[in-house]
Design goal:
The chain is of the alpha/beta class and 275 residues long. 38% of the residues lie in helices and 18% in strands. It has one domain: Luciferase-like domain (TIM Barrel, Alpha-Beta Barrel), CATH 3.20.20. The longest helix is centred in the C-terminal third of the chain and has 19 residues. The chain is globular, with a radius of gyration of 18 Å. Keywords: Flavoprotein, FMN, Monooxygenase, Oxidoreductase.
């Protein structure tokens, strides 16, 4: 099982390239950045009913942060956790993903999701009621661009005639598509167009759904979890359930605070591994 971290890359915290270098130097396998282009002042209540955290309003652009991270490292896998593809043009995003993957030597992990903030979606012209179908079509369209010399796609929401787009990703056929979310139909989306499932950590419920996914899948689907606590017992549970990667949230703060958070995470990993 691989151990990764995630952080909201905010302008008032450690810089994306610096946290990436720190993460790689300390032996972690991966680093993930989330995405929010903006937050409408009047917005859908934050999941759980808590006040919206400061970091949601202050993040750098996802692909700017990813580029800084891959340029500062040589081994670290860097990913979107998650890219809100329902708010993005698929042709432009396919170009960004392919460019980052090519320049990094094939180190990009493409996490995708539909998000929770309906007003944010609407500001991008997305109807929240059809966002799941839109997500599938945009992923399928991007795969066509990555894998075809002359790509075309015809769906209900995404349509384009034959086009040329290079570079192609370094990874073949394309970077892993990691589907985020825990909604009632998420497993259908994973099976339809995902290479992996990355739900948010929950003490219960996720492990039984992971077993369901494995039983339904006719191909290998990676199991990954976002937001696992620094707890050896949680590592044991997810490892026993067949998870390939666990990802721990770091605080959006200065270097010293982030280093102390990594110390705690690494102590838990050492207890789990016996290292």
């Amino acid at each position: 099982m691989e151990f990764g971290v995630a952080i909201f890359p905010t302008h008032d915290a450690i810089r994306p390239g610096d946290v990436a270098r720190l993460t790689e130097d300390r032996g972690h396998e991966s680093l993930f950045f989330p995405e929010h282009t903006h937050i409408p002042v009047a917005h859908t209540p934050y999941p759980g009913g808590e006040p919206l955290p400061h970091r949601y309003v202050h993040t750098f652009d996802l692909f700017v942060a990813v580029t800084a991270a891959v340029c500062a490292t040589s081994r670290l896998r860097v990913g979107s956790g998650v890219c809100l593809l329902i708010q993005r043009d698929p042709i432009t995003t396919a170009k960004e993903v392919a460019s980052v993957d090519y320049l990094s030597g094939g180190r990009f992990e493409f996490g995708v999701g539909a998000g929770w903030n309906r007003e944010e979606m609407a500001n991008h012209g997305t109807d929240p009621r059809t966002r799941m179908a839109l997500l599938r079509e945009r992923v399928e369209a991007m795969k066509a661009i990555w894998t075809s010399d002359e790509a075309s796609y015809s769906g209900e929401f995404v349509r384009f005639g034959p086009l040329w787009s290079w570079p192609k990703p370094a990874q073949r056929p394309h970077p892993p598509v990691i589907v985020g979310g825990e909604g009632p139909t998420v497993l259908d989306r994973v099976l339809a167009f995902g290479d992996a499932w990355m739900p948010n950590y929950q003490p219960s419920g996720i492990l039984s759904r992971a077993a369901e996914l494995r039983s339904r899948a006719e191909r290998r689907v990676s199991l990954q979890v976002m937001g696992i606590p620094a707890d050896p017992k949680a590592f044991e549970e997810y490892a026993a359930a067949g998870f390939d990667r666990v990802v721990h949230w770091l605080p959006s703060a200065g270097r010293g605070v982030v280093e102390r958070a990594l110390d705690g995470y690494e102590a838990a990993i050492a207890e789990f591994t016996g290292g």
